[in-house]
Amino acid sequence: MPAISIAEELAKKQREISVSEFFERNKQILGYDSATKALLTAVKEGVDNSLDAAADADILPDIFVEVRKVEKDEFLVVVEDNGPGIVKKEVANVFGRLLYGSRFFSRAQRRGQQGLGISGAVMYGQITTGKPTKIRSKVAEQDVAYEIELILDTKKNRPNVVEEDFVVWERAHGTRVEIPLKGRYIAGKQSVPEYLKATAIVNPHARITYRPPEGDDITFERATEDLPPKTKEIPPHPHGIELGTLMAMMKETKSYKLAAFLEEEFVRVSSRVAKEICETAGLDPDTKPKSIVLEQAKALHDAMQSAKLMSPPTDCLSPIGERLIKRGLKNVLGSLRPEFYAPPLTRDPAVYSGNPFQVEIGIVYGGDLPPDQPVEVLRFANRVPLLYQAGGCALTQSVGNVDWRRYGLEQRGGQGLPFGPAIILVHVCSTKVPYTSEAKEAVATADEIMTELGLALKEGGRRLKTHLTKKEHRAKTKEKFEIVQLILPRIAEKSAKIVNKKIPTLDATITKIMGVVWIDEQIAYDKKLKRHSVTINIHNFTSAGKKLNLHLLLPRGMEAKSMDPKPAEARDDGKITWELKRIDSVTKASISFVLDGLDEAEYDESDVYVSGINPGLVIGAEPLPGDWELNYAEFEGEEGAVPEAAEEEGEIDYDETEESLEDE
Amino acid sequence: MPAISIAEELAKKQREISVSEFFERNKQILGYDSATKALLTAVKEGVDNSLDAAADADILPDIFVEVRKVEKDEFLVVVEDNGPGIVKKEVANVFGRLLYGSRFFSRAQRRGQQGLGISGAVMYGQITTGKPTKIRSKVAEQDVAYEIELILDTKKNRPNVVEEDFVVWERAHGTRVEIPLKGRYIAGKQSVPEYLKATAIVNPHARITYRPPEGDDITFERATEDLPPKTKEIPPHPHGIELGTLMAMMKETKSYKLAAFLEEEFVRVSSRVAKEICETAGLDPDTKPKSIVLEQAKALHDAMQSAKLMSPPTDCLSPIGERLIKRGLKNVLGSLRPEFYAPPLTRDPAVYSGNPFQVEIGIVYGGDLPPDQPVEVLRFANRVPLLYQAGGCALTQSVGNVDWRRYGLEQRGGQGLPFGPAIILVHVCSTKVPYTSEAKEAVATADEIMTELGLALKEGGRRLKTHLTKKEHRAKTKEKFEIVQLILPRIAEKSAKIVNKKIPTLDATITKIMGVVWIDEQIAYDKKLKRHSVTINIHNFTSAGKKLNLHLLLPRGMEAKSMDPKPAEARDDGKITWELKRIDSVTKASISFVLDGLDEAEYDESDVYVSGINPGLVIGAEPLPGDWELNYAEFEGEEGAVPEAAEEEGEIDYDETEESLEDE
């Protein structure tokens, strides 16, 4: 066949593919690659929509989910909410058209953004059962609800209405969707109830009721009546925006002047900064944006990237928060009674490609968690649990990139998922989470996000290590204490007998032999007052007087009150420092404070550090980490840190010469 | 705010999102999530297109790839081919419009199918550089080439022509694309040259020349002048088609009768089978397909699923083939000199969701491969190397699902990637590979594909284990041989001296003590004739005569000639059996054959098994596996298999009572 006819013949086959034809043939990309997953994905899309709708309208969400068995492998997925409802003329489009939605261009943290989720579920349902989806929606000021049955015409990507009507509905407002689909119902890790439970953990303001195919309803009650702070929409941030995107924005702007364009269409650009950017780029601030040519745009882009700008505002993001992470984890893990919850960590917002994002982690260790399995990674994005594609997800990969051997977990070769009795929770929230596919099952490995995740996980690892080292030191010292207290008196007794003298008092001697500063604490809880009373004791079991600085790290959002003595400094980020002037040999000092308004489980161990003393002497607190920015001039120059190698291996030389006060 | 205005307000934001706007905001889904990956993805899309174009036109591909550095982080990616070219009126659409292509609806194995690849690269290029892409294309009967510079209007998803012209081009026909983009150039595992090398391995009919940003051109010469067998397009297979898809087909068919519709629009449905399906479904074969209602469609769908049908034809698929897998692996691994190449394995085609697919694997072991690392998994789909998203890919996951401890590799808990000096190549080809996203970086875990992968990998593992056990047994027995041959004569000598008698001959005694049947082989290669001459020797080092059946498994596509003695059976699938009637004590039998037309490296070890003898006696061949379907009645009832537990642990009791022939 001559090449002409081949090229011509190939040309005949060229055609446009509608987006719905594409996803009909590639339904695995939307999350429908197996019968089990399909059922869960449909539930997920329904619940995501309901939570977003409630957030849009400042309503405490009340969501009903039902999975009803129709016949052998056919189910009806029902999701009903008390959201604001959808106006009649939009219902068919929202549910019967792919890439149609309200949130795609908004820069605010939402679960759904793509306009693919719920209409994808409708399409999957009709592909596998041949049946339409039924939707009922009522807006507040209407007396009746609008009910519609529709299918999605995949050739045209438009809804086909099968039936429509108005019906009486007792709800004041809300939406109910019923999707028939082929699926398989399973219990266990990737099941509907597990998904809903995980959703409840990170959305404690929602009440979710679940009716399984068999058995009783399960209700996840709301843990708080407070709505999460409302997230705001923001314009893009100049850092990370692509050149081409900038050029497209300049073509479409309504601003007539470049400086005004920058100020109005970007966040964190004041009129002063806008002028500075123009100047750096060598452009007149009054240039018409539409007239900018490629070379000029490049210079402008460079100037925007190099401009020193504030981070994007955080009110567009809705992190779970350190308190809630801990509460959520305790909620899931109650029966496993983990020995330790590393203080959760919410990092400051950062930017990737002009989108603000924020990373949070929590680590749980010990107790009845299995010691010989890979650690479990609980993944969340924009408060949605991620259950699939763990291996392809930035959240899992970043856990594997950390060398956990440094932090007390087993890990072959220092990479990959570590082994040990631990659970690691990772949450990324953003005005635009870069998912690896439309199924939103995994987060892509954008460089900036990987960096933030790495920093958060290392800090979490350090906190875990602190706990493990403290525990180990305490155990070792306790053992020494016990031996010394048992053997020395016996030796004294025997010696006294032999020389026929009185048995000497040994307290000072024992103290001298121990040579440690022992830090422990008592925490009392008053249920009625919802008050934790914390007392930290610093026992000087050395033969000399000691002074030291004690640092407490409180989880974000907790405030210590009635502090006694008054601290030298209490910072907004929860770092509090006391200077303990002198503790005489064989005496103790105490620090006390109260925390109000927490549940009992929310505080069970203080995160304490010391400085201004040889940390090798201290049992029960770690040396102050080097990366904890200090404001105290007097700390400088004093010996403080254990050599890194020793710290790494958890080996501290107890026989190190004591630093004693002059008066000894 | 009352709910009415919220619902109305939300409605105002609802709008359609163009597919290009969607991917502009979600470029990570197309594979552009980092600067490094973006550069590779653009090259990949260009090369995929070129290879597909050559395949469409039965041309031996000659592809030129260049990555040129423009400025600090800007590159120009050039891909030029000798394909049939693209007719003028289609060029702009093919490169400047998403979801536009010729292969989306074709059921044949192609690299590209979605109409997203190259236009996605063009879009990424303009987003990051603001510059257009230049395309030049010439079809055979034109004297000049058509050259166009275009950008993609993402609002409308249509090409915007910046410039166009006709130019003289020395090529007879072909296409050249030049994409400017922001990227980062790296060396190593996920680099452009590594990708091209992997592509060359599985496309040995292609010549690929690569011009890097710095340094000399690299050419991967073609290893064969033979085009791979041309793949044919086929209609869908009734097994696995979705009910909704079937209903949509019936609405659109031009057939007036149900039976004709089934026969014409599905593969493997004869007119007899079509009538049977209608009968099972309780439907009149003359029913008009358009008139079928839901309940009828369901019955028809069930009948189609339960109908006994032939597998889909294989000529729509283009597997790499067992010979080529081995050659490809040797090509990459030459310098590492692995000790063993497990015979590669191409499984028979299977079906998922109506799409035929085929799975192939190859395993390499030992030599200079690192013994303490996770095994490397080389992934391919439709002859395209997969370099990213390994963790989220069915190919990697299926490797992790196998308990490799059974096959001699180390693996914690019997799951996850095993550790050891091994490389596992996995290839899936299909008329429609279910990728997890549009970037085509990972294969989704469709149940049927996972099943086939599992079977293939277990079979591969078994072959590896066979080799490892054989090696271990040989080593053990050799040691025993050496000890016996060393010590026995000394004892004899001493004893003889003491009793003052002549030293006795010990051959028979040694043989009796060894009590093994030793199988080894010599392989000679004649370069001129391209001929392997193979001799397999069976030494009977037991004290009785022995008979046994020897089975040889040849890789697909190899044919043993001049077999001496004649085998009892030689099957098409490469399984050959000899019945060795009697080998006297302390004698040997030999089997010889030749293999023609192979390169020397393609055959270096025979895969042999035994039956009809206590396999515990045999060193150098494994017992015939239970799943090797036998046609020999006489084998039945004879003792043959080592107890499973013993086989698992590689322990064989050498002192087991010998089965001797009657004549001893």
- The count of strands of chain A amounts to 26
User: Could you list the spans of chain A in which at least 5 consecutive residues all have pLDDT below 50?
Assistant: 629-664
Helicity range of the residues of chain A?
25-40%
First-residue to last-residue Cα separation of chain A: 104 Å
Strand content of chain A: 25-35%
Task: Give a quick account of the main beta sheet of chain A: strands, pairing sense, barrel closure.
Answer: 8 strands, mixed
Rg over alpha carbons of chain A: 31 Å
CATH superfamily of the largest domain in chain A: Histidine kinase-like ATPase, C-terminal domain
Gross morphology of chain A is globular
Draw up the topology in text.
2 copies of one chain form a homodimer.
Chain A: H1 3-13, E1 15-16, H2 19-25, H3 35-56, E2 62-71, E3 74-81, H4 88-96, E4 100-101, H5 117-129, E5 133-138, E6 145-153, E7 158-167, E8 174-182, H6 192-202, E9 207-211, E10 218-220, H7 243-252, H8 258-265, H9 271-281, H10 294-306, H11 322-333, E11 340-346, E12 350-352, E13 355-365, E14 376-381, E15 384-386, H12 394-401, E16 422-430, H13 447-499, H14 507-514, E17 516-526, E18 531-541, E19 546-553, E20 560-564, E21 569-570, E22 575-583, E23 588-596, E24 607-611, E25 618-619, E26 622-623, H15 644-648
Parallel strand pairs in A: 2-9, 14-16, 17-25, 24-26
Antiparallel strand pairs in A: 2-3, 3-8, 5-6, 5-8, 6-7, 9-10, 11-13, 12-13, 13-16, 14-15, 17-18, 18-23, 19-22, 19-24, 20-23, 21-22
